[in-house]
Amino acid sequence: MIENEIEAKLQPETDLEARIIADPDFQAGLFWGTPRYGHPEGAVINHIPEVLANVDKLTVSPEMRRKLRLITYVHDSFKHIEDKGSPRDWSKHHGVYARKFLAKYVDDPLLLNITEMHDEAYYCWRLFALYNRPEKGQERLDYLLDKVGEELQLFYLFFKCDTQTGDKIQTPVRWFEQTVKGIDIVHF
Fold it and tell me: Could you report the per-residue pLDDT of 94-104, keeping only the tens digit for each?
């Protein structure tokens, strides 16, 4: 029953997507989450279709769309096991867990890097705009750009699709679009 509900909600388009959503490790985190700022939809299973709808608004190649959909499925699906202690242990961030999970299915290192670092532009923006730590922000941004490499556009598109959901503030995306060179800005 629960697998039918998941399949109906997430509507896999490929065999790989179907295998991912049938994986018990993936399913374990889908129903985590309550309505909160940034995620008024609550559970992860309700967030994924919002991001997928944004992916569908893009004019991209079938390969780019396939990659965006994979990132969308797994990016927040491990929040339920993330350690949110203080100080933050970044090795226990949900993006790290998402990367490890996706690595069971794909071996594309840049795709895995983007999955792991999908929230990184937001953290960079916070260092610049909220914490007035431009040196640390630039260091973190340089590291992000190095890790996503030639897939910078893919990272940006996912960041935009993810951020334009719920009631998330849009300032980090605008900051990224104004700051980072080499991306083709999209509007939807």
Answer: 999 999 999 99
